């Protein structure tokens, strides 16, 4: 790869029409398919980072933060390696003119990644090829996948890298990043990143709002629905509302939800979101207590 060059990789039959599968699997089944395909290629499932990371950011914003130990701090091994299904909270999602989140963006989501130390760029290419196997197992054939980007080296603190993006037909899926330590380029790693719900959207081509929020898709503005998803993750993890620290993020999220929006309470939607997050990682706070804390913060009268 030459620094500054445009790169586009696609199969020779690229551009043929995509026909979505007739069946959309439940979230736990879709995640299990990804886990199994990675495992068949020798990629072990990695534990999640703590949601309250408390390092450069209050909350974990990406599974790639597991590589900081290797790429930025000079340690010989990363925090973990392999395939993590990492719940994250991030406020950088693109928005429409009316301040609603655009399709494929959420404040909280499951970062589907592969983070691995590697020895050379040939290993990076192999890992990219193995990603195609994962996507194919999900029903997204290589002829509909393309990898593209400007091969420009970026630098953030002690780390440098090159980012390429991959898409399925016309929908962006995620990126594949080659990282190395700026002062020790031999210390190299790869990060493949997408989101579970973005993969499901590209696979199914269902309306985004219906796919994400299910039976509640038309019950409230999108930002409120998104806030309830995010608050459920935070409260389920034990990040209760506070004036400072990580808890202030929970309070910030809940401030966007009108207390009178649901006169019958929020327990049904919180229970559904809690089940989703619990399929990804164990939440220490059960859904009834999560609902109680949320409604107390909103001043819901019971």
Task: Provide the β-strand percentage band.
Answer: 15-25%
| Average residue-wise pLDDT | 91
Main sheet characteristics: 8 strands, antiparallel
C-alpha end-to-end distance: 62 Å
The helicity comes to 25-40%
Number of helices: 9
User: Topology as H/E string?
Assistant: EHHEEHEEEEEHHHHHH
Which class best fits the helix and strand makeup?
A: alpha+beta
- Determine Rg (CA atoms, Å): 20 Å
Which stretches are low in confidence, meaning pLDDT under 50 for 5 or more residues running?
A: none
Count of individual beta strands: 8
Shape: globular
Question: Which features does this protein show?
Answer:
single chain; 302 residues; alpha+beta; 8-stranded antiparallel β-sheet
Would you kindly provide a written description of the structure presented here, covering whatever features stand out?
The protein is an alpha+beta fold. 32% of the residues lie in helices and 20% in strands. Strands 1, 2, 3, 4, 5, 6, 7 and 8 form an eight-stranded antiparallel β-sheet that branches.
How are the secondary structure elements laid out?
Elements: E1 5-10, H1 27-40, H2 68-71, E2 85-89, E3 108-118, H3 121-137, E4 145-151, E5 154-156, E6 159-168, E7 171-181, E8 188-195, H4 196-204, H5 208-213, H6 222-236, H7 246-254, H8 267-278, H9 287-298
Antiparallel strand pairs: 1-4, 2-3, 3-8, 4-6, 5-6, 6-7, 7-8
Helix pairs in contact: 1-3, 6-7, 6-8, 6-9, 8-9
